[in-house]
């Protein structure tokens, strides 16, 4: 099987010269730490924990050089929760990427290698794991345990759905070796929902490489890097939790500026937004409505020497100012990547260019961004610093807000609310309807969707003011 990697890479060599900058507003970029390989190498993701600390994954490094799960405390201390490949033959997994936290404080994530070793994938086809806050790991599923890897191989993303199940994608494997969509219960019951490349030339898509999201209509959405009816430039797909797939071949072709899409995010307006790293070009940012309308928002490298960035390689994140933020792998004043923002109508701003110092102590080749409820962005770089990547913050002075997990639910459902300075919270409302709630800590509240609640903003009243959710909470029937 030749599709069990993270995805094919588009290599672009460019000559980068200095250009005049137009910064969007005053901001502070701070390198928080440099990984030294013993504590991690090639960091891949970071999330905000229920306890207010930051947690993340590195694909390499650690005591076994096969990746780590780390904790970054509010006081600036970095600690390792788990070193992968700690079990014989890396049965626990290797090269972790996606990480999510559950309401009980434990984490669930994926490792793209390790697990079962076979002739199909000698280093293992990956695992889904559960990790306690104390560092005890349980393997929920090992990929390629079914004949011919029909259960998939090399997982590329994971979410927890509103029904409590986990949903994810694999880059390879499946019944037709084009990747798969799967579900997994918290106890480890695996269900194959869909195998890509079910038709000749893969019009339904081939090789999902960025995971999926669950939109506020309950449907799952994702992208495939290749395949589609317009050539092999990739697709956007919609799939029900029961496995019925609809594919949208909106990308021009395998040589288009918008070919090879990354992951998706649903913004406050209900539309989906994403980026593509392009082929024979430098990538694009786009909008996709739930009714199937596709709109290009920005084509990268339209400025001299790709000053605005080149090859966006991650999903976007909506900031508390309503703009969508992302990173590019290349481009910028020194060709080592950028942070950018784009409005929902296509207004573009360059936020930061990497490796602006020498010798690149801030790092370069950035991984996905995350905005903490304090309003500060956090991110990781794959290289730079001491040579193994860096962890940084970007403070643009944006307002504090609250996050909900999930962002939609039914009346009577208990959800989590993340924020800051929540200890003395005196009220929680769902679009104006008061809710019962329990303050678990200064950074976490559990609340019950109240009878009479309607779709809209969740607000938490604190002594220092009212905090609002950055995206509307959708009340499902």
Amino-to-carboxy terminus distance: 43 Å
Query: Which value, in Å, is the CA radius of gyration?
Result: 21 Å
Tally of individual helices: 0
Proportion in β-strands: 35-45%
Overall average pLDDT: 90
Uncertain regions spanning at least 5 consecutive residues: 1-24
Give the helix level as a range of percent. Answer: under 10%
Shape: globular
Total tally of structural domains: 2
Number of strands: 40
CATH superfamily membership of the largest domain:
YVTN repeat-like/Quinoprotein amine dehydrogenase
Name of the top-level CATH class of the largest domain = Mainly Beta
CATH fold call of the largest domain? Methylamine Dehydrogenase, Chain H
Q: Judging by the overall fold, what is the CATH architecture of the largest domain?
A: 7 Propeller
How does the major sheet shape up?
A: 5 strands, antiparallel
What oligomeric state do the depicted chains represent? single chain
Going by helix content, strand content and strand pairing, the class is mainly beta
